[in-house]
């Protein structure tokens, strides 16, 4: 393994650099903005420079931190760590000038930093503008370091006190090594790492077998990075799979259990079983193209996905009649019902199905357009269903308690609540959608630091097999359970492509998640428009477009104002969108571009008139 290369910028008396030199396996390159003649005049600088050179370190003078690649040849640009302690433009420079300095500095770092390298920036208390600053300055009066770094593709991965007194021989100097030093009491060291690159919008096709016909379909854009991710595959160490395996193991100790194969079609046809048409992803299919046709796929579209409308239309592609009303499955219920109708459904045996399901939904903290459902199905004698359901939920509760205590050392509250005790307006999005599918007897709720949320539902279906038997369906949201058990605050993190997420979860283990992107910046934009006359505004479609054009970067959509024009009766709506990423850098100009694209898309797909 090669030497760890460390670059230090803006050194004053070189005492910080001197404290690092001599460390095993480390090569130090210490620089300052001043000339050698000016730098060596500072108290203690000459001694530190001699020590650095004696230890084999490089000392470079007159280095501009905004043009780093100019000072190092290509083979010497791969620094593992870059330090910049207390950057400042000097004199009476305000926050705007210092933000500009940091912006140029971070862009410069991106050209000389190793792929997995770190950038350490120490700032005086309050300058950074993050919640770690105590007291925290108003945002406009801070250096906004996380937002500035995001513009160069960096995320804040750690922040901790800069303890000057623990650094041997270190003496802080002021701007350009002036005798008046910076106030380092309460100072913070901000550690930045590279973000994963922005996703490239692209179409994606999938093939599926439907009865005797092989068909191709284009994945709706909002789901492109969420299809066939393999979270539940045997070689996966994803926490969603771990939750599923632990629950299955717990259930198998108390009940006979049969796992249904995972090869269940993503596509369904026909009746929605109560779900609202606007809440599903409608798909138009075509036969899968032959090998010769593959080269013409880009020129000849073989599918169109109805993201913002749900019209039922027949379509002829290449002379073939295509059935109407295909959609991505919003639930595993229909698969379970098909298995029951095939017979061979032993009394008391749990049949477990699991896989991703897809639902259009509003943008809220726990609303997921895709999540992994675990559906437990079993038949019991009529009159025993209540006791059997309680027994099942007690088993799930025991497993959840054990998992939560292992991960966090605490026990969550998990309880079974009768559906009749809830008003429709009290249901969260998961529970509300499940209520559309069929009547629910019980909600499985998990109490956390936040208000309790629904992680599962239980419903029964009498006379599905015979008049003496009742079939029980228990549906669990595995993604939400994984979030609550591992302390993951944002559902989008489950789908991140950043390898630092899965590295925290050894196979078969659940641990508390430590975010690698702290205090991500957020950007607020408003949009107002006139609704088409005489039409009901489709808010779910509005939210779905926001998800799609932003790549799931919109975390909140709030109705700010609703106005009806006197005389004409025209209705105007104003919404506020908040853009924020949980796992990668998002700059203010990227958010602004997303907002502009969003405005274009709602005008095109929803027929609104922008104001």
From TrEMBL:
Catalytically driven reaction(s): tRNA(Phe) + L-phenylalanine + ATP = L-phenylalanyl-tRNA(Phe) + AMP + diphosphate + H(+)
SUPFAM superfamilies, A to Z = Anticodon-binding domain of PheRS (SSF54991), S-adenosyl-L-methionine-dependent methyltransferases (SSF53335)
Highest rank taxon of the organism: Eukaryota
Q: Which UniProt keywords apply?
A: Aminoacyl-tRNA synthetase, ATP-binding, Ligase, Mitochondrion, Nucleotide-binding, Protein biosynthesis, Transit peptide
Enzyme Commission number, as recorded: 6.1.1.20
A single Gene Ontology biological process assigned to it is: rRNA base methylation
The residues forming a coiled coil are none
Q: Pfam families, per this entry?
A: BMT5-like, FDX-ACB
Q: Which family does it belong to?
A: Belongs to the class-II aminoacyl-tRNA synthetase family.
User: What protein name applies here?
Assistant: phenylalanine--tRNA ligase
Q: Which organism is it from?
A: Smithornis capensis
Q: Which gene encodes it?
A: Fdxacb1
């Amino acid at each position: 393994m090669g030497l760890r290369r460390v670059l230090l910028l803006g050194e004053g008396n070189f005492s910080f650099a001197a404290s690092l030199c001599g460390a095993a396996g480390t090569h130090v390159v210490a620089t300052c903005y001043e000339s050698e003649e000016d730098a060596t005049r500072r108290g203690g600088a000459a001694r530190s420079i001699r020590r650095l050179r004696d230890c084999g370190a490089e000392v470079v003078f007159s280095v501009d931190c905004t043009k780093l690649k100019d000072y190092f040849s290509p083979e010497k640009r791969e620094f593992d760590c870059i330090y910049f302690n207390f950057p400042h433009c000097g004199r009476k420079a305000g926050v705007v000038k210092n933000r500009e300095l940091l912006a140029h500095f971070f862009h410069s770092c991106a050209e000389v930093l190793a792929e997995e390298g770190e950038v350490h920036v120490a700032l005086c208390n309050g300058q950074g503008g993050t919640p770690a600053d105590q007291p925290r300055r108003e945002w406009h009066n801070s250096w906004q370091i996380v937002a500035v770094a995001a513009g160069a593709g960096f995320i804040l991965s750690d922040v901790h006190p800069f303890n000057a007194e623990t650094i041997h021989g270190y003496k802080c100097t002021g701007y350009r090594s002036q005798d008046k030093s910076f106030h380092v009491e309460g100072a913070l060291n901000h550690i930045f790492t590279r973000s994963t690159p922005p996703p490239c919008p692209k179409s994606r096709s999938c093939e599926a077998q439907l009865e005797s016909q092989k068909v191709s379909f284009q994945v709706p854009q909002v789901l492109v990075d969420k299809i066939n991710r393999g979270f539940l595959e045997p070689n996966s160490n994803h926490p969603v799979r771990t939750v599923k395996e632990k629950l299955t193991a717990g259930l198998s100790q108390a009940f006979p259990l049969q796992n249904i194969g995972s090869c269940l079609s993503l596509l369904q046809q026909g009746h929605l079983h109560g779900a609202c048409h606007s809440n599903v992803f409608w798909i138009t299919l075509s036969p899968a193209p032959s090998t010769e046709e593959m080269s013409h796929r880009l020129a000849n579209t073989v599918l169109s996905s109805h993201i913002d409308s749900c019209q039922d239309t027949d379509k002829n592609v290449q002379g073939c009649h295509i059935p109407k009303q295909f959609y991505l499955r919003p639930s595993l219920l229909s698969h379970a019902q098909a298995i029951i109708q095939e017979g061979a459904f032993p009394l008391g045996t749990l049949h477990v199905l699991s896989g991703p399901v897809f639902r259009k939904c509003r943008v809220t903290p726990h609303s997921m357009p895709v999540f992994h459902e675990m559906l437990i199905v079993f038949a019991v004698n009529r009159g025993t269903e209540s006791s059997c359901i309680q027994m099942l939920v007690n088993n799930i509760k025991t497993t959840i308690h054990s998992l939560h205590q292992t991960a966090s050392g605490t026990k969550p509250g998990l309880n079974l609540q009768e559906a009749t005790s809830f008003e429709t307006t009290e249901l969260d999005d998961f529970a509300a959608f499940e209520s559309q599918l069929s009547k629910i007897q019980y909600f499985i709720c998990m109490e956390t630091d936040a208000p309790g949320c629904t992680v599962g539902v239980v419903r029964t279906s009498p006379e599905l097999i015979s008049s003496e038997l009742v079939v029980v369906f228990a549906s669990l949201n595995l993604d939400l359970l994984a979030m609550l058990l591992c302390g993951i605050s944002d559902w989008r993190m489950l789908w991140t492509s950043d390898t630092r997420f899965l590295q925290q979860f050894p196979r078969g283990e659940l641990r508390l998640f430590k975010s690698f992107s702290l205090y991500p910046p957020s950007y607020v934009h408003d949009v107002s428009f006139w609704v088409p006359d005489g039409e009901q505004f489709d808010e779910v479609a509005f939210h779905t477009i926001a998800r799609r054009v932003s790549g799931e970067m919109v975390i909140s959509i709030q109705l700010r104002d609703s106005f009806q024009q006197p005389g004409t009766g025209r209705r105007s709506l104003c919404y506020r969108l908040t853009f924020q990423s949980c796992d990668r850098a998002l700059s203010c100009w990227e958010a602004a571009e997303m907002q502009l694209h969003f405005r274009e898309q709602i005008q095109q797909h929803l027929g609104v008139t922008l104001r």
